[in-house]
Amino acid sequence: MNIKYISVCVNDMEEGVRFFNEKLGFNVDEKIMLDDELTCTPIQLNNAELCIGLVEDKLNTGFKTRIVLATDDCLKDYHNLKLAGVSFEKQPRYLSNGLSAEFSDSYGNQYVLLEERNYNEL
Amino acid sequence: MDYIKTLQNNNKILSETRAHRFQTQSASDFCIKFALGGNELYRLGKRELSVYSDSFLILNKGTQYTSKIDSDIPVESFSLFFDQGFLNDFNRSYSADNALLLDQPAGDNEFGLDFSETIYPFSGDLRFNVTHLKNNLDNGLQDELLINEYMHHCLINYYEIYKAEISNKVEKLKFRSRSTKIEILKRLNLAKDYMYTNYNKNIVLEDLAKHSCLSVNHLLRTFKQAFNQSPHQFLIQLRLQRAKILLKTSKYPINEVVCMVGFECPSSFIRLFKDRYNITPMKFRQTAA
How many beta carbons lie within 10 A of that of residue B162, not counting itself? Predict the structure, then answer.
């Protein structure tokens, strides 16, 4: 058994897809049916096996997700995302396990950009 | 890779790879000096400060110095120069953000003292950020906003190191007067710099005391207060750390590494290395390869 999709609810699928594709650089796949009524748009980064499944929140459940995005250079990605128009709620800050910054989409889902750092290596 | 990058705000980055070089200069701005993959020897007046890949040196604006690289393998000399205006802006925002954390107000002078011209450990976040900056510049990064973002973070990282290495150590010293504490730490830093520079030589406690203008007893007592270890323990730790770098980055036989970092006896080196890193030097080299 493997995790295939992590659902992220958006109020408007087209707008949601644009945010992930144009601002965050995700690849967008063909819509798939999760059941008779629910469709999901799979999106992925760098051909990773684990995908985000964008789901339109038709029932207004207000379900929010918090996704951690791994980066090998937080400052660079932070800078590039800002240039792409992403507004950050938390500027890059130092944690015990690395450098992290946070932004959210217009539906209230949160994204943590995390560069894990091994401080024991010289 | 060699380049000099002067940004629009007059921050400057200098990268030079040399096996042999001697120069006499005056620091045009406050700067952080790194020597990647080797060492560079600086002379500030009578002080000799040797920067290795695990350490860095701070020079204040206007400091006269000579620097020398004399090595079998080329050394990457990498320097970050911060324009005074950039530094003043940073100091203001940093002081405001950290006003509650600092034990005394950090005015523009707090980090600009002559006192800060010493050798610091090049580790933690500063190491990651400088490595990212250098890799990006080597690969042709031109975006000045991003370069300044890295430089801003390098200052944040340096100030944290300064707090740990200077401010906190001053406070640890058990003297009533602050000016005495500062004077003693200045002298202890002379001892520390001497060990950083001469770690591979036979260092006698009396010489160390003389070099730092303290009596042997005074040196032993105050060094332990500030550094939580004796000068001897500090030296052993430094030698082990540099042996670790050599084991990881060079092909010198272990017996040669032992001599290069100043140990006399391979068996005691192996025991000390294992005690500190929980792995033998041989196994460490195999896993690090």
Answer: 20
In the prediction, which pLDDT does B210 show?
A: 95
- Of B47, B42, B34, whose CA–CA distance to B189 is shortest? B47
- H helices of chain B, in order, are 84-98, 124-138, 144-162, 168-172, 178-198, 205-211, 216-227, 231-249, 254-260, 266-277, 281-288
**Residues with Cβ within 8 Å of residue A49, at least 6 apart in sequence:** A2
Among A76, A94, A119, select the one facing B132 at the smallest CB separation: A76
Q: What is the mean pLDDT of chain A?
A: 91
Q: Which residue in chain A has the smallest CA separation from B55?
A: A122
- As for the ipTM of the complex, it is 0.91
Please identify every stretch of chain B with a pLDDT value under 50, giving residue numbers as ranges: 104-109, 112
* Cβ atoms of residues B90 and B155 within 8 Å: yes
Confidence (pTM): 0.92
Tokens of B172: 């640890």
**The two three-digit tokens of residue B147, written as one number:** 């370069």
Size of interface A-B (CB pairs under 8 A): 32
**Full DSSP string of B57-110:** EEE-TT-EEEEEEEEEEEEEEEEEEE-HHHHHHHHHHHHHHHTTTSSS---TTT
